[in-house]
């Protein structure tokens, strides 16, 4: 006599499937959170490596590297004024990239990708004999945040960058020696890595642990990101002339709509060699993960070009920021503008508590 076959009924099978689906739904966020925690940890480690490199550079030269090097127009008239070396190029020897550093011919400009958004802006530059092509295209893992992966532009230009030096000033090319046509001749750069800067530790009177050196920025995708955390909005057309100073730049940028405003560039962070705010430097005009804006209606040189370029990240709630002592702190999006600007300056005399970040 055959025994009756035992098995699952359809209802039992559906119940089991439903239970498995619920478990997956519960576990998936935890798995994603764990993965992001690992990526954020790697991002923190990258910034710490940059911090060690900065300190080793100071040990060797007794001064911090420049944020933006000179341009080469006087020696190579065909060179683009924006084709100049970044602070990153000066740190290569100290992040185990000595061969890459030695491959660079610093007597000539770097090659640069085109940075255009909705308007012509910083077209590609190549040296006559393609000198520095290989170095400019080289990908440096230490300069890329793992949370900001999957960028199709990296296949076009592998030398992308997520970590920016603190220029701090509201004007793109403000340096120690200001042109005579600067609207605010009394202004002085208060950051760390600016145009032809040569800051010494002794000049950081606010203290290394209270002064931001590097932070992170989401790289552009060549498409509007919807909120201008990586795109750069244009402060022009309705604003004439371009604003001057921290407050005016901030107010005008915050008034712009990311949905309707023309983009100057959608390729933020496309090149680690470019000593420009589109790629390797940021400021403390606006708080983290806020809008990025640039004024193009300025008079004279780029020393007059107002910009708001805050750091941004894909880490929920804030950004990693490397301080002058080499420590990395997670600065929340909710940080007050007063505190954010205080840690952006090297000699403002502000008192900042650790719990205000």
TrEMBL record:
* Domain of life of the native organism: Bacteria
Pfam families per UniProt: N_methyl, SBP_bac_10
* Matching InterPro entries: DUF1559, N_methyl_site, Pilin-like, Pre_pil_HX9DG_C
List each copy of the DUF1559 domain by range.
32-335
Checking Gene3D superfamilies in the record gives: Glycoprotein, Type 4 Pilin
Protein name as annotated: Putative major pilin subunit
Species of origin: Aquisphaera giovannonii
């Amino acid at each position: 006599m055959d025994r009756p076959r035992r098995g699952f009924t359809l209802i039992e099978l559906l119940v089991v499937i439903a239970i498995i689906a619920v478990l997956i739904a519960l576990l998936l966020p935890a798995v994603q959170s764990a993965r992001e925690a690992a990526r954020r940890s790697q991002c923190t480690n990258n910034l710490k490596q940059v911090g060690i490199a900065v300190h080793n550079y100071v040990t060797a030269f007794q001064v911090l590297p420049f944020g933006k090097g000179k341009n080469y127009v006087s020696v190579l008239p065909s060179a683009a004024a924006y084709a100049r070396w970044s602070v990153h190029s000066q740190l290569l020897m100290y992040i185990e990239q000595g061969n890459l550093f030695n491959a660079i011919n610093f007597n000539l400009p770097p090659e640069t990708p085109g940075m255009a958004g909705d308007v012509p802006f910083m077209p590609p530059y190549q040296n006559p004999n393609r000198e520095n092509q290989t170095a400019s295209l080289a990908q440096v893992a230490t300069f890329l945040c793992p949370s900001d992966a999957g960028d199709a532009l990296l296949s076009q230009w592998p030398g992308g960058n997520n970590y920016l030096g603190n220029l701090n000033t509201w004007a793109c090319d403000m340096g120690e020696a200001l042109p005579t046509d600067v609207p605010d001749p009394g202004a002085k750069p208060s950051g760390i890595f600016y145009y032809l800067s040569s800051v010494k530790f002794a000049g950081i009177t606010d203290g290394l642990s209270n002064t931001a050196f590097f932070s992170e920025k989401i790289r552009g995708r060549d498409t509007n990101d919807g909120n201008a955390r990586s795109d750069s909005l244009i402060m022009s057309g309705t604003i004439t002339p371009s604003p001057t100073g921290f407050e005016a730049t901030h107010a005008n940028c915050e008034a712009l709509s990311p949905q309707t405003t023309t983009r100057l560039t959608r390729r933020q962070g496309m090149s680690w060699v470019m000593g420009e705010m589109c790629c390797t430097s940021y400021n403390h005009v606006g708080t983290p993960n806020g809008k990025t804006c640039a004024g193009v209606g300025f008079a004279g040189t780029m020393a007059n070009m107002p910009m708001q370029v805050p750091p941004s990240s894909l880490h929920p709630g804030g950004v990693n920021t490397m301080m002058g002592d080499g420590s990395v702190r997670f600065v929340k999006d909710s940080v007050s503008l007063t505190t954010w600007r205080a840690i952006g300056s090297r000699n403002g005399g502000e008192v900042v508590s650790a719990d205000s970040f």
